[in-house]
Structures are given as C-alpha cells and as structure tokens.
Amino acid sequence: MNKRTLLAVLFLANIVAVVTGAYFKITHQGYGDSILIVSFGLSLAFVVLALTEVFASRRIDTTQKLMWTVGLIFFHTIAALVYLLAGRRHVIDASKGLIEYQEL
What we know:
Membrane topology: Multi-pass membrane protein
Number of domains: 1
Protein name: Phospholipase_D-nuclease N-terminal
Mean pLDDT: 84
Largest sheet: none
Keywords: Cell membrane, Membrane, Transmembrane, Transmembrane helix
Structural class: mainly alpha
InterPro entries: CLS_N
GO cellular component, one term: plasma membrane
C-alpha cells in the first residue's frame, strides 16, 4: 500500500470513527469512549505520516513546513483534507521532480 492510499484510508477511517463515536456518546450507547480513542489514534497516525512527508520535502521552505505543522496539529480535519486534495501533490511532486533532476 502506497503512502497516498494509506493517508486517505487513515483520514476516512478517522472521520467514520469520530462520527460513530460521537453518535454513540450522544445516544448514551456503550463503547463511545473507546471509539473516540481509536479515532484519536488514527488522527495521530495521519499527522505523523503527513508531517514526515512534509519535512522530507526539499522544495517547500521552512515557513511552509511550519504552516503545515501548525495546521495539522491544531486544525486537523481541515488541514488534512486540504493536504490530501491539493497540498500533498505540491509537496510530493516537487520533491520527486528535484530527485529526478538530480539523477539526470
């Protein structure tokens, strides 16, 4: 499984777990706390993987890396969605282009 697929699966599983856990908590059903803890773990895994890609990129500067870090930590859902839809392509394609240029 490549990183893009893994990030997408982690993000979607996190969203499903948050919604399910919140529903269970609101309706006072069992295991709501456990589901929310699982969603926190999924969120943490996503942030760690995304930040490793951001910090491994050679194209984006330190300011952009800092912005991605703050966004992914404090505004996880919105920043994760933006990262998956647009930001990751900018970070990864740019670093691949740099690697291909160095190989030539």
